[in-house]
């Protein structure tokens, strides 16, 4: 299958923003990278994340509208995040990975299930463990198996997977566990649904399913609900919590940056009031650091692979149907032409000469165009409120000192994940 990587900025913007390339097809495409394609697609065949055409249109429109109704990018969600940030208090030294996953995941849980879980809740912890295990398996094994050309074998003989020993069985069982959890939540919602007062994403979807039950072309069905919830849960947890964890590593490595942010936050908000999104305008340095964290981490360097659903004519070339298209976000986020010092952590990339926040069109960690991240506003809100709230209350450090922090991500295939450290959070 032909593969085309697309970057830098002007080509990516032209293809995904101006020409509005929408297609995606993880079924075909992920096979290039991942061991467990067949298993995953078996579980995630429906839903927003890997669909195309009418299904994608209906689910994307509905998901964006519902997330907005429940406050994505607005006040309601702000309060949930503020509430959740109060639970980000821990003993030191500690590895914040799991705590941050709990915090971030709870925001999605509020949105999807109208429920926040205690950080000791066994079910919740089990789910987060699964997500973390899946990540480990994918990142470590996909590289090994890629070298051994096994993915091709999996594509040709998917049924063999059932019989071969290996991690696929664990992955299979664990994804099924998340699915069962989601199905249970849907059932509970069905039993308590009051159509005049929807509580969350599930309620809204159930109401829509009922309204469209006689429409033969509707995409509002049970399978799409389960899979879209899985998309939101999986896509919304690790990306955001890993970015916050990376930000903490940055703050420990550069104590002067941390101090400057704390000073700015102290002057504008103080220590007693919860931060809100309005504050962002008055915190240009803090905002610039958070943007630079996302740029420098470059969490999904190839974004999510797309593929051509039909022949495409682009800049005098024909891209044949079924070509795998990798949007190289990495080439944009680390582009020599786009940034003064692409390979250094430099908040000045987002500040003008007067210290005001300055946008840069090459800031594309959420990809671009109509198929870009559906959770962007939520993620940006979480990053801002959680980080500001943490800096109001703590100073971060580690026992081995700033130089011991390595900002180069752990070796990975699909995602750049920050290294883990035992950190110290000293109350201010
Ligand atoms: C720092 C945090 C995040 C980053 C960097 C990020 C990045 C991305 C990227 C690069 C894509 C692929 C876009 C493409 O196909 O071209 C994507 C898609 C997606 N993201 Fe995120 N994301 C983040 C947080 C979230 C959150 C919080 C949610 C949940 C509300 C979410 C849900 C999704 C979904 C459902 C898709 C598929 C959208 C579609 O196919 O239409 N993401 N994200």
UniProtKB/TrEMBL annotation:
InterPro entries: Cyt_P450, Cyt_P450_CS, Cyt_P450_E_grp-I, Cyt_P450_sf, Cytochrome_P450_fam2
Cofactors demanded by this protein: heme
Residues passing through the membrane, by range: 25-51
Compartmental location: Membrane
Pfam family, one: p450
Swiss-Prot/TrEMBL GO biological process terms: organic acid metabolic process; xenobiotic metabolic process
Protein name: Cytochrome P450, family 2, subfamily Y, polypeptide 3
Native source species: Mastacembelus armatus (zig-zag eel)
